[in-house]
Every structure is written in C-alpha cells, then in structure tokens.
Amino acid sequence: MMPIETLERSLKKRFPEAKFALDRPRKASGTWFLDIALNQHPVIVQWQQGKDLGISSSPVKVFGEGADEVYKDEEAAYGRIVSLLLSQTFTSPPPAVSLKELRKENGLSQAEIAEILERQQGEISKIERRRDVLVSTLADYVRAVEGELQIIVRMRDGRTRRIQLEDAVESSPRPAALAR
Predict the structure, then answer these.
(1) pTM as predicted
(2) Among residues 32, 8, 31, 29, which one has the least CA distance to residue 20?
(3) Which helix or strand (DSSP H or E) is residue 161 part of?
(4) E strands, 17-127, where?
(5) Is the CB of residue 54 less than 8 Å from the CB of residue 7?
(6) pLDDT (tens digit per residue) in 83-97
(7) Helices and strands in the chain, H and E counts
(8) Partners of residue 37 on adjacent β-strands
(9) Domains, the chain, ranges and CATH?
(10) How far apart are CA 3 and CA 23, in angstroms?
(11) Which residue(s) pair with 160 in the sheet?
C-alpha cells in the first residue's frame, strides 16, 4: 500500500463524514492526489514515489501548482491535515526567495555552487545579482542546490499552467557534476 493510501485510510477513520477522492497516476512515476473535503473545507494531498507528501488548502481551486507545505512522513502529514480540517484554516504558499537566499538555505557557498557547475565563483555572484537569467542557467543553478525548476503561469481567469521547456533545458550542456 502506498503512503498516500495509508494516509487516506487513517483519515477516513478519523473523519467518516468527510468526502475523499483519490486520483492515481497513469504512470507509476506520476503524482497521486487525494482530495479531502470536510464541511466544504478542502485539503489536497499530493505524493509521488520517492518524494515527500505535499499539502495544500486554499479557498480557491488552483491547478498546476506545487504543494504549499511538504512533510517527510505520514504521521506529520496526518497531524497537519487533521489540524487544517478541524480549524477550517488554509495553507499559504512558500514566500519567494532570491537565488542567494535559496543557496544559503541549502547551506552552500558560492564557491561550492561554482564547483558543482564547473564555473568560477565570480560567475555565480553575477548570476545571483542578475535580473535576467537564461532558463538553462537558472535550471542548472537550481539542480546544483538539489532542486527542480518549474515555471508556473497564472492566467487572468485564474487558471494556472506549468510550462515545460524540456528542449531548452535538455539542449543546454550539463556539467558532469549535475549529470550524476
């Protein structure tokens, strides 16, 4: 049984009156979604093999965005979901950060990023200060801090879409350190 299925089973015992909808992915590597509603208060859980459990709760339906909060284990996720359902409160998306802040949050120096990207430390400093960065450079930087770059577009009508730039990212030369 997958962690999200175990979580669903536990939550159904705790909230038998809630509505649950579990969406399984078409591919084994895809993302699972568990929609929960208690008194019309929504909580969405997402999970993917090898990744943590993501939780979001918003008064507005949003598609294509990542989770607002991430939990490493089912017990922590269960506690947070129970809290959200009982208090009828919402999650908040994480605040925007600069590249420098992202690097520091991950305990890396500019010299370490430079080594991973096979560049000079001064180049990393310039990347962090730029207003206009190539998507491929940004993707490499994010991979160096062990992240995954996603570009989300919000339309006027409230829809959100994730832009897929595989060709742009795949065609850029990748330093050997990132190819591991």
Answers:
(1) 0.62
(2) 8
(3) strand 160-163
(4) 19-23, 31-38, 41-48, 53-56, 69-71
(5) no
(6) 999 999 999 888 889
(7) 7, 7
(8) 19, 42
(9) 3-87 (no CATH), 99-178 (1.10.260)
(10) 14
(11) 154
